[in-house]
Amino acid sequence: MDTKKFACFVAERRKELNMTQKELAAKIHVTDKAVSRWERGLGFPDINTIEDLANALNVSIVELMKSERPTENVSVNEVSVVSDIMQIAKADSEERHKIISYTFAITTILLTILDILLSIDWNAQDLSLSARVPFFAIIPGVIMILYAFICKIRGKKTYGIGAIGISLLLIPIIVIGVAFLVCALITG
């Protein structure tokens, strides 16, 4: 794809639809600066944005990729192939996102449990237990909950990130409670 040809096509089509850059950006969940960059030929949209951009401009993905309106009929096979490639790229991106999120969450959970267990100080005579609540579990938990909330607002999949965030907030309480019960049962 030629950046200048793409830039002219997007700008012309947007203007034909009487849309501002800001309105187009809002439709496809990007910034108006991103639309401006595309229209100045300084780059292309992310692969996950192509389908939304084509829909917002009322053109096919093939027309957008070629940056021209067809003078002849575009074959169904050509549209199908481009659509399939877009779906594969989108699924691949979502799968990578899911793997990174789950790896981060599992690592944080395991480190949280380990840190709590290593910080436990048990006094059997007073039946008192003290443990450090790791902030490296609470902060990512809050961030994951906010991220899931933002994804929901934007209509994107969350892959259970909100639930993982909530569990990161609850794990310290659960682990400390279970540790207290175990220590009380052992000494009691």
Describe this protein's structure.
By secondary structure, the protein is mostly helical. About 75% of the residues lie in helices and about 5% in strands. It has 8 helices and 2 strands, in the order H-H-H-H-H-H-E-E-H-H. The chain has helices at about 5-15, 20-30, 30-40, 45-55, 60-65, 75-120, 135-155, 160-185; strands spanning about 120-125, 130. Helix 4 (about 45-55) packs across helix 6 and helix 7 runs antiparallel to helix 8. The longest helix is centred in the middle third of the chain and has 44 residues, at about 75-120.
Sum up the structure in keywords.
single chain, two-stranded antiparallel sheet, 73% helix
Tell me the overall shape.
elongated
Catalogue the unreliable spans.
none
Instruction: Report the average pLDDT across residues.
Output: 82
Helix content: over 70%
Distance between the termini: 74 Å
Q: Classify the secondary structure makeup into a structural class.
A: mainly alpha
Q: Report the C-alpha radius of gyration, rounded.
A: 26 Å
Range of strand content: under 5%
DSSP helical segment count? 8
Secondary-structure element series: HHHHHHEEHH
Q: How many strand elements?
A: 2
- Order of strands in the sheet with the most strands? 1-2
User: Mind describing the biggest β-sheet?
Assistant: 2 strands, antiparallel
